[in-house]
Amino acid sequence: MLSRLIPVRETILGAAILALLLLIASRFSGFVAPANLLNVFNDTAPLIILALGQMVVILTRCIDLSVAANLALTGMAVAMLNVAMPGLPIPVIIAVAIGLGAVMGAINGLLVWKLMIPPIVVTLGTMAVFRGIIFLISDGKWVNAHEMSDAFTGFPRAVILGLPVLSWVALLTVAIFGIMMSRTALGRSIFAVGGNPDAAVYTGIDVGRVKFLAFVLSGALAGLTGYLWVARYAVAYVDIAGGFELEVVAACVIGGISIAGGIGSVGGAVLGALFLGVIKNALPVINISPFWQLAISGSAILIAVAFNARSGKTKGRIILKSAEASE
Amino acid sequence: MTDGSTPPRFIPDRLRTRKTRILHSWEILLLAVAIAIFVINSLASPYFLNAWNLSDATFNFTEKAMIAFAMALLIISGEIDLSVAAIIALASTAMGFAAQYGAGTPELVAIGLVVGLLCGVFNAIFVTILGLPSIVVTIGTMSLFRGISYIVLGDEAFRGYPASFAWFGQGYLFWVFTVELALFAVIAVIYGVLLHKTNFGRAIYAIGNNPTAALFSGIRVQRVKFILFLLTGLMSGVAAICLTSRLGSTRPSIAQGMELEVVTMVVLGGVSILGGSGSIPGVVIAAFVMGLVTFGLGLLNVPGIVMSIFIGLLLIGVIALPRLWTMAAAKRGRT
Amino acid sequence: MTEPLTPVVSMDAITKIFPGVKALDAVHLKLYAGQVTALVGENGAGKSTTVKVLTGIYRPDEGTVRIDGTPVTFTDPNAASDNGITAIHQETVLFDELSVAENIFIGHAPRTRFGLIDRHAMYEAAARLLRSIGANFDPRTRLRHLGIANKHLVAIARALSVDARVVIMDEPTAALSHKEIEELYELIENLKSQGKAILFISHKFDEIFRIADRYTVFRDGAFIDEGLIDDIDRDGLVKLMVGRAVDHIFPTREMTATEDVLQVVGYAHPTEFADIGFTLKRGEILGFYGLVGAGRSEFMQSLFGITKPSKGVCKIKGKIRVIRSPADAISNGIVYVPEDRGKQGAVIGLPIFQNITLPSLGRTSRSGFLRMVEEFALAREYAERLDLRAASLDQDVGQLSGGNQQKVVIAKWLATQPQVIILDEPTKGIDIGSKAAVHEFMAELAAQGLSVIMVSSEIPEVIGMSDRVIIMRDGRIVAEVAGDEMQPDVLVRHAAGIGEMSQLEDA
């Protein structure tokens, strides 16, 4: 009965993160100092933002493997825009980044919606195409820190009320998605489409359109993160965030978002991202090579998907009255 | 055209002769494309029509195609394995590790094959015994397998393979024909026979088209899928031996992104990404098409990353164009 | 009871045609405010199609739907619900991961000034609706935490939330316990008193006589009769429902063999069936009758090795056999022709000959390698025996008509040379001509010494074909009848439990 009030998966994951922190703190107390934890959060912010976009896509029974390539392409585009027009105000840069990302998401979405191509194929393909386009527009060259304007690179690092803007953007995204998923018709439709597409049609929801919008959301967030990423690290080149899409999917799967669609929560995605973020930041502290990270997130995906599948097994129809009574 | 003229009770075995069936197939279209690319390439670059250059060009596809054959069977059965490139990394790392301790060529080959096989079994256990979706499982093992390579190697590389080990990736059987090309041909024939001439192959098609009906027909569905994952792992091991031998070194980033090219090759070869249809000859021709295109673009000094645009577009286009075509035809039919 | 003048909804001469089948043939249906109309008919009578026409999922080919006497056209499900028609489906079509209140209000939730969903108002309204139908759970509960009965209540609350004038209940009691059914009756009375028109679809006669005011009978997609429940008795209704016992001639046959082929003792499953035991003789046709959901198919699939029984012994020709998979069953001479041809029977995408030889590949091949000549020969032999109509043997099964697909599936099983063949609803959804061919063929098989188990919900077929009939209800065998005892009303009474539930009727 308690399970009705407390979401089980999120609680277990939250407890796991807490246990992880305590374990690290027992030997390296500096890690759990508030300032360091804020650092960890700031470092994880891009993953949190992307995981929320990926969550929406996965909830509708799709997957978006092109987010990292989208991020890199948008990052390069805005970096070059900044070089060409250093006076362009940051809000315009951000709008361009979100818009460009959304367009790329829309391309994925249209191919899934109108041509009904499996999302895995579409985004595997656009992933390669987006990366290739970066090379075409940049001619394979890097955009370095000294070429970017101070305003461009300074924005995500500016500190407001003790937190960098990057962290604030992540918090804002979490808040917006929290409201969107629970309080808007689109948010509820996203759950409905993934949970029971046939029934969604009966309630008058256009399943293809909802999937399309999910890809647009994911793309827009990837675009936004593209600017933040390039500005924060003050460099743009073809391979930035290479393979980051796997980490994003890992965050979602660890966060309890079912790859079969319809099951998941904003809290889960955020916790999944934080789990990976804590591990990533803790590895150097506890003297484990950062090269362990990939294998750890891979194992986490496998454990999480096996665990979630086991807890989510559905019961069949019960015919025997006696069996029903004993349920 | 179908019935009416057919008298009751007599049903011919086949409506179309073997010739018309082949002429109307995806494979013949693909073959025409391959020939066209060949002609364009030889007109575009004076270096193209050279036996030794062409022989070098085969390396663009032989290793990928070895995996693509097993992957084709897996995709026809309705599953997918995205971890193949990571299996190459892990198998190659294991071989490099053994080579540091003085393992000879036969041991290295055995290690490559066994690691590939074990990785395949690992995937198979998650998909067929635990019943988890293969996309997520292999995205997970993709990180795990390559992650282990990173743990072992970090930013180092293994070198110092025995000289005789170079035979697989650099050797020639006679004249311009490489060991890899011969291996590719043998594997193509084996998979072609397996898929098209055996009960096992028939079971793969049945499972891909309708897993429930296949189960109801007495096919041991999970066992077949287990074997297919195992074969895909094994072929990744073979590819790892060839690639490692050719490069002469192992870095953890070896074969990065190769799963995309393997899947593209399979889909280009006419295998339905939804499962149920496709052929090995199709994949063979697709391998040549992709190899010729990469080689041709290479001769024109197009960088590798730009070729990936081409591969990505090819992957989407191959599926999208027939659908656009049918949609346009349906629209024309309605008005 | 005074006769209201205009029905809230009426279907006038509605016809709906699917490729090869006339699902509805100029049917009439009238629903009146404050009354429950029971729609009665066998499986395949056209009840589900009627529901889909009324809820805007199908568009009729001919005829008119009227609301308050005015003709209307529903272009989509939204149009029907805008007109106040709402349905509670057999399988609840709801969303497990959403809260009860969200399920009730999806698509029409109250909004705040900012356009967001007003959760406070939504939960309040949901709580009010739930209270009004006597449901005492929190509207914030996730749907997946509710049992089937409570999910039904949510579906009903959803129906009420759109201010429906017409409520369609499609087999609402199929998954409910006796107590929950009683509660449902109270709810229906409540809805009646609010002036809603209710369409009640059920197989169960005690329910119909308990709750309905009017009846309408369909048979094979055609309108048969309508009237007031008070003017008819059970036997009358059964006769209207199954009436056409004579319009199809079944092959006459004689059963002589006495040798036992299959013996099943004490088969049980934790949730689906219990205590199943019977003996099947050589050359016998044994019918299994029961309502949908009585556990017949579930038992058959267990006998075929798809699900594992928790207890039970299966003997073939006196020897105990363990069947753990369909492959085991096939090698022991038991085959199963499933009801769901699309999903479980034919492999659409493979040619006819490959479908036929699929379970027999062990015989047509040599050490694992296919032999096409043998395959075509085997496929041809059985295609001809079943008089299959096809352009060629390498044609895709998906291009064949339903009846011919069924023949391919049967051919596939006969080609394995089985001893026992289980046919699950062998003639469901196929036209009359093909039905007769299938029946004749069954008789022929039995005459050749094959033992047939036929699961069927069509009374004429069960009676016309079977030597004996076993009747199942709620996962158990409740009766076995043979000879002159095989009468429509006997079967219906046992299957529906009429007579045994008298305490309910008296209440």
TrEMBL record, chain A:
The chain crosses the membrane at residues 12-32, 44-60, 120-138, 158-180, 212-236, 248-279, 291-309. Its main location: membrane. It comes from the Bacteria. GO terms for molecular function: transmembrane transporter activity. One of its GO terms (cellular component) is plasma membrane. The keyword Transmembrane applies. It is a multi-pass membrane protein. Keywords: Cell membrane, Membrane, Transmembrane, Transmembrane helix. It holds the Pfam family BPD_transp_2. InterPro entries: ABC_transp_permease. It is found in: Cell membrane. This is ABC transporter permease. It comes from Litoreibacter roseus.
UniProtKB/TrEMBL annotation, chain B:
It is found in: Cell membrane. It is a multi-pass membrane protein. The keyword Ribonucleoprotein does not apply. Keywords: Cell inner membrane, Cell membrane, Membrane, Transmembrane, Transmembrane helix, Transport. Part of the ABC transporter complex LsrABCD involved in autoinducer 2 (AI-2) import. Probably responsible for the translocation of the substrate across the membrane. The complex is composed of two ATP-binding proteins (LsrA), two transmembrane proteins (LsrC and LsrD) and a solute-binding protein (LsrB). This is Autoinducer 2 import system permease protein LsrD. It comes from Litoreibacter roseus.
From TrEMBL, chain C:
It comes from the Bacteria. Residues 9-245, 256-499 form the ABC transporter domain. PROSITE patterns: ABC_TRANSPORTER_1, ABC_TRANSPORTER_2. The keyword Lipid biosynthesis does not apply. Keywords: ATP-binding, Cell membrane, Membrane, Nucleotide-binding, Repeat, Sugar transport, Translocase, Transport. InterPro entries: AAA+_ATPase (IPR003593), ABC_carbohydrate_import_ATPase (IPR050107), ABC_transporter-like_ATP-bd (IPR003439), ABC_transporter-like_CS (IPR017871), P-loop_NTPase (IPR027417). SMART domains: AAA (SM00382). It comes from Litoreibacter roseus. GO terms for molecular function: ATP binding; ATP hydrolysis activity. The gene is rbsA1. It is found in: Cell membrane. It holds the Pfam family ABC_tran. GO terms for cellular component: plasma membrane. Gene3D superfamilies: P-loop containing nucleotide triphosphate hydrolases (3.40.50.300). Transmembrane segments: none annotated. It is a peripheral membrane protein. SUPFAM superfamilies: P-loop containing nucleoside triphosphate hydrolases (SSF52540). This is Ribose import ATP-binding protein RbsA 1.
